[in-house]
Each structure stands twice: as structure tokens, then as C-alpha cells.
Amino acid sequence: MKAWVLAIRPATLTAAVAPVLVGSALAARQGSFHLGLALAALLGALLIQIGTNLTNDVADFERGADTAARLGPTRVTQSGLIPLAQVRAAAWLAFGAAGLIGVALIAASGWPIAVLGAAAIASGWAYTAGPWPLGYHGLGDLFAFAFFGFGAVLGTAYVQSGAVNALGFAAALPVGALVTAILVVNNARDADTDRLAGKRTLAVRFGVTAARLEYAALLAVAWASPIALVFGVVTSAWLLLPLLTLPLGVRAARRMWRAADGPAFNALLAQTARLHLAFAALLAVGLLA
Predict the structure, then answer these.
(1) pTM (2 decimals)?
(2) Which terminal residue of the chain has fewer beta carbons within 10 Å of its beta carbon, N or C?
């Protein structure tokens, strides 16, 4: 059981929780909050995240990206804690369960959710698996931004309200930026081993210094978004609540510039995940207020 908990990487699952919080707050703001649909969207997002993590565990081992030299947490396939075939089967089980949840959401909300759900599952699998894995060609950041930002936030709002609006797009922007920042830390940490395995992340293509700059830029986008919301979309000071995370973000940005080994990057990874969740929770409160 401990090995399976390690395999699903519970510390990363906040990436699925945060956008559902914001999307549900958007629906509630429109008077359309539906607890059952919100919970279904949350469960579906968690299952897709788990399926992606398990697929990543298998595919990175098969492609040589996960070795004894990696700096991140233990991977169950590479370490032999769980047989490869079992991890792969569990990944498909998670994706299949997400698909079943999707059927219920499609029945409630229509074909747009079918398109979004199928694309999210496909990209989760294709991030490290398949003939042309996205993460190995430097597209991981873009797809994380798209699906864990705009896709998850707007999809959650849509299944409850049946519509999306300009406020939804604006609220999804910082959520996507911060979840991408989590991936940037991961890729900066693994740049050396990824390079040897032919995994051409942006950190490998342009260097760790560029990854540090990308991280700072993503945090800047996140903090600028509430200000832009207040002055450009909704004139409510409550939407400035996420700026309370600024001290945590500044510390994270400084740590990103100093990080030079596995433990430092791993601590920053957890810190960035907490920043993402705290920002999203405060944004959700601001939207409700």
C-alpha cells in the first residue's frame, strides 16, 4: 500500500484540486453551483492526474529517464517496488474510471465535455507515452497550462453552469501559470538526467537559467492576474485576496534561483504546490465574495 501511495504521488494531486475550486466558485458566482457535479469534476480530475502520474512512472523508466541517478522522489517502476505491468494496468484503470465519470458529466452537460475529457485523458497518456511523447519534445509546459489551467477551470464551471465567460478565462490564467511553475521546477531538477535520456524539456533545450526565468515569469503572471481582473473585468477588491500569497511566492522565487541539488528542488516543488493551492483557494473565496 505504501508503494502504491508513492506511485500516485499524492503531493501532486493539489494540481487537480485547485482548478476545480476556482471553476466551482465561478459557477457559484453565476448561481449555478451543483455539489454533485462539482464532486464528479473533482474526482475525474484526480483520476486523470493519477493516471498521468502512473503512466509517467512506466514510460520514463522504459525510455531511460528514470534511473538510479534521478534526484526526485523514488519511482516505483524504476526501483522495482511494483512490477511494470501492474503500474501500467493501474494507469489504464485510472483513465478508464475517469472516462466513466466523464459519461455522467456528458449526460449532464453535453458534447463539449466529451471533447474536453477525451483530450485531457489523451494528453495525460501522451505526456510521456506513445510514439511522440509531449514531454520529451518540450510541450509539457504548454499542455499543463492548457489542461490544468483553462481546461479544468472552465470545464468545471461549464458542467455546472452550462456556460463560460470572460471572467472564467481570466480566472483560469493564474491557475494555469502556477501549475506550470510546478512542472518547471520538476524539469529544472531533472535536466541533467533528462538530457541523457533524450527528454527535451524546455529546461534541457534552453538551460536551467532559462527555467528559472520562466518560473519567475509564471509567478509574475499569476500575481498580475487578480489586479487585471479588478481593473478590467470585475471591480471587486475581494479578487485581490490571492495577493496574500505574495510573500510565499517571493520566497519560492528566491529558492528557485538558489536551488542546486535534488533536496532543494524537491522542497521547492512542494512549496510551489502549496502556493498553487493557496492562490486558488483565495481566488475562489474572492469570486464568491
Answers:
(1) 0.95
(2) N
